[in-house]
Amino acid sequence: MRWEELDQQPCSLARTLAVIGDRWSLLILRDCFLGIRRFDQFEDRLGITRHILADRLKKLVEHDVLRKVPYQERPRREEYRLTDKGLELHPVLMAMVHWGDRHMADERGAPVRHIHKGCGQAMTPVTVCSECGEPVNARDIRVEAGPGWESAGVLPHSS
Amino acid sequence: MRWEELDQQPCSLARTLAVIGDRWSLLILRDCFLGIRRFDQFEDRLGITRHILADRLKKLVEHDVLRKVPYQERPRREEYRLTDKGLELHPVLMAMVHWGDRHMADERGAPVRHIHKGCGQAMTPVTVCSECGEPVNARDIRVEAGPGWESAGVLPHSS
DNA sequence: GATAGTTGGTTCCTTTATGGAACTTGTCAA
DNA sequence: TTGACAAGTTCCATAAAGGAACCAACTATC
Known about the structure:
2 copies of one chain form a homodimer.
Chain A: H1 12-20, H2 25-33, H3 39-46, H4 50-62, E1 66-72, E2 77-82, H5 84-87, H6 90-103, E3 112-116, E4 125-129, E5 141-145
Antiparallel strand pairs in A: 1-2
The structure holds a DNA duplex.
C-alpha cells in the first residue's frame, strides 16, 4: 500500500493516518493546541525544516484541520488556526499524551498538567462508552462490520 | 530535531510518537487489536514490505508494546501479542477511529461498529475528566507545567 | 535611497527511509 | 530429493526528509 492510497481504505484509522499519520503533523497540532499560530514560531519550537513545515501546514489546511487567517495586510501575513475539525482531534492528542505520561515519562514525572476548567483539578482523560457512560478498555469492545464495510479484509475474530 | 531525539524531549506526546508515530506502527497495532498475530498475516493485510514489517515489529517489541510468544517448536515460530502497555493504546486508536468516522467517512458511513460488551450497544468513545466525570473538549482544558517540565520551551499561553 | 530586517516561503543538493524482489534457514511432507 | 511454509534478511532503486541558501514583499534605519 502506498501512502497516498491510505485514505481510500475502508478503515477510519487509515483515513485518519492519511491526515495526521506522519512524523510532524501531530507535533504541529500539539503546538496549535498550545496556541502557536505562525510559521516562524512553529519552526523555532519544532526544529523542523522550512519546506517540510510548509508542506505539512498546506496538507493540514487542505484537510480542513487548520485554516489560514490573515492578521495583517501590506505585507499580507497569515497565521494558522485550528478549525472545529481540528479541535476535535483533541481527544487523540490527550490519549497519546496520557499514554506517554504513564509509560514513557522519566523519573521527574509528567512534563505538563492538564487542568479541567470545569472542576479546577488536574485531570487525565478517561474514555467512556457514549451509551452507558462506563469506562471502556480494549477487552470491553467487540468489533463488527458497519455500514461502510466492504470486504477488503475479514475480521479475524471479535476480540 | 532528528527522529531518534524525539523520546528525549520533555513532552509525552513526542515520546509517544517515538514509539507509534510512523507510517506503519499504528496500522500494525490496529490489526493486533483485531486479533492478528503472525508475520505473514500482517504482511497480507497491510501490504507492507517484509523488512519494514520486521523492523516495526522489532521496534514495538523493544518498546514493550508487543511481545513475542512461541506457538510451536521445531521449527520455532513466534507470534506477536499486545502487552498490557500495548493494550493501553486502545484509547488512542479509538479516538483516531472515531475522528475518522466523523470526518473522513464516505457516504456509506463508518466501516466498523464498536459494541460495548458491558451494555451491548454500538458505542463511540467519549473523553471525560478523571476527577469530575464530565465530558471534556479542547477549550475546557488549561495546560500548566508539571513536575517533569524543563524549560526547553515556553508555554505561549494557557489555551 | 541604499541597506538591513521580518515573515513566509521555495530551490537545490545530500542523506535517510521505504518499496520490491530475490535469497536464507529450519523443518516437515510427498 | 524436491517442494512448501513461516519468518526473516539482503540488495538495489525510488521516495521522503534534512540542511543551507535564495526569493519576494514589504518596513524601518542610516
